[in-house]
Amino acid sequence: MNDNIPVDGQYWWSNVRQAVRFYDAIAAIIKDEAANVFLEISPHPVLATSIRECC
């Protein structure tokens, strides 16, 4: 999340209707935040495989 981007109805509508650059987002988090652990809270691990492929 970015403090400069309002997380409002328009934000979520855009995320549902437009392409989301998932790989770019994960790569930026790894680079900028030095993150090496991602926690997916979900009944099914739907993002885990995609995150592993990005790393």
How many separate helices? Answer: 3
Number of strands: 0
Q: Measured on Cα atoms, how large is the radius of gyration?
A: 13 Å
The biggest beta sheet reads: none
Element string (H = helix, E = strand): HHH
Low-confidence runs (pLDDT<50, min 5 residues)?
A: none
The share of residues in helices is 40-55%
pLDDT average, as an integer? 86
Strand content: under 5%
What is the overall shape?
globular
Structural category: mainly alpha
* Separation, N- and C-terminal Cα atoms: 20 Å
GO molecular function, one term: transferase activity
Protein name: Malonyl-CoA:ACP transacylase (MAT) domain-containing protein
Keywords: Transferase
InterPro entries: Ac_transferase_dom_sf, Acyl_transferase_dom, Acyl_Trfase/lysoPLipase, Polyketide_Synthase
Write the layout of secondary structure elements.
Blueprint: H1 9-17, H2 22-33, H3 48-54
Fold and architecture overview:
Pfam families: Acyl_transf_1. Residues 7-53 form the Malonyl-CoA:ACP transacylase (MAT) domain. One of its GO terms (molecular function) is transferase activity. InterPro entries: Ac_transferase_dom_sf, Acyl_transferase_dom, Acyl_Trfase/lysoPLipase, Polyketide_Synthase. Keywords: Transferase. This protein is mainly α and 55 residues long. The chain has a domain at 19-54. Helix content is 51%, strand content 0%. It is built from three helices and no strands. The chain has helices at 9-17, 22-33, 48-54. The protein starts with 8 loop residues before the first helix and ends with a helix.
